## 1
Amino acid sequence: MNLNQVTLPATDLARSVEFYRMLGFTLIVSDLPTYARFECPLGDSTFSLSRVDRMLAGEGVVVYFECPNLDETYAKLRSKGIPFDTPPEDKPWLWREALLRDPDGNSLCLFQAGEARRNPPWRVVDK
């Protein structure tokens, strides 16, 4: 199996579509006001937005988008006026991460992990 598609809830798809386009994703399906799908700039993964009347309370899911040059991406997005909850920070799990939220409050993590994403020193050997 390969994870390819994640769908996020959105209360205002037009607003969210503009936000994700500003992040650099390519809109490939537009059925506004109820649905939109994007391609990621690297690899062949996609994700979509689906309209909801209201967002559920609580923390929910965090969607991680890998960036080969996180600090440059962070600076570029900040210059476009995109707010972040945290700037890029080195983490003990050997990733560098910056956290932000989309217009509906969905949690996003832009990260740079390199080899540590799939092969950290503590990787479990599944038998």
## 2
Amino acid sequence: MSETNRSAFSENGIAALSYITFVPAILFLILPRFNKSSYTRFHCWQSILLDISAFTVSVILSLLAAVALQNGAYFFLGLTRVMWGVWIGLWTSTAVLALHGQRFKIPLIGPIAEKASG
């Protein structure tokens, strides 16, 4: 009787799960059981970079919105909502594509993730 050391999830499933938040992405990068695949590493890095980018842009737009709202302008508040819609769309589409075995590179973020994943 041989014991297999296989994960309950496929490589595609692990890559898709890395998009839930940065926490599983970091875990999958750290745990040797999952970090052997360049496919998984790519999606983990892309997820982390997407989260960092979304957070940074959100903070900047929120600060601009706070200043603009004092003057009665709602442009930056709307722009923040559009940015979150784009982020959710990217997050969903990259997770689904990863689940189907595709390596979609987000412009600007994807090439950096590819270099980081080796």
